[in-house]
Amino acid sequence: MKIVTKKLRSLEQILSDMKSVVVAYSGGVDSSFLAAVSHQRLGRQSLAVTANSPSFAPWELEEATALATRFGFNHRIIETKENEEPGYAANGARRCYFCKNHLYSHFHDIATKEGYRYVVDGSTTDDLKEFRPGGEAAREWAVQSPLVDAGLNKNEIRELSHTLGLPTWDKPAQACLASRVPYGIRVTTKILDKIAQAESYLRELGFKQLRVRHHDSVARIELPPEELCFLLESNIRRRVTSRLKKIGYQYVSADLDGYQTGSLNRSLRSGTINRGIQDKSGE
Questions:
Q1: Which end of the chain is more exposed for a tag (fewer CB within 10 A), N or C?
Q2: What is the Cα–Cα distance from 207 to 258, expressed in whole angstroms?
Q3: What's the CA gap between 123 and 146, in Å, rounded?
Q4: pLDDT for 32-73, tens place per residue?
Q5: 118 CB contacts (<8 Å, ≥6 apart)?
Q6: Can you give the pTM of this predicted structure?
Q7: CA 212, CA 192: separation in Å to the nearest integer?
Q8: What is the CATH number of the domain that holds 127?
């Protein structure tokens, strides 16, 4: 038996032993896989919950809902307001902590009121190596991470997702819209809406793996290097520039370094986020 198959069997046993779970389900690669396996093992005793808010991209909600319907998940959408949390809006280095703390409080309430034994998330062994303040919130709310307990990494989850027939197996990595805003710049609903509109338009043009980084009056577009040539074709360039200016940006730029997950975390690694901004996030 392949190692990855053994890990899947381990995950199935872990979930069976849990008896009933609320799955933090965003529709990404990891949470979709967890929701699918949980549904297979626990049926109606598995509830996949998606938190909808201004920081959650509209197309992500549509895709998460479509997948849940296709595979028959016990699925629920709740409305959350993490963007109204002072620590989240301040957008310091611990923004993700305040976001997850808000979300997990809602998931915990559902589990407590409706008799689900655990809240589980899609964290993987790879996530343990990265800067993720949300992990602290998970520990505080006793959120379990079955994929970590089964020893699964992201590549193995993609492989197993393909085997299970999940369309998310090759889905690009996603993150909340606030991740497009540099640390220290206050996150507002207006800014999140501009980013959502800009990325939605680029997706309509056929771009899938992308980020529109918000730098006040400047929209900095990140795409895989091989797609930059298409963006810079005169007709596409004019259309993109025109639409993003209508959305509210004065300048539209293409990042020549290309698409990079967590590119705004460079300021954390370089130490350019000053102490005052970090402290502000804890208000």
A1: N
A2: 13
A3: 8
A4: 999 999 999 999 999 999 999 999 999 999 999 999 999 999
A5: 18, 20, 21, 22, 111, 144
A6: 0.90
A7: 11
A8: 3.40.50.620
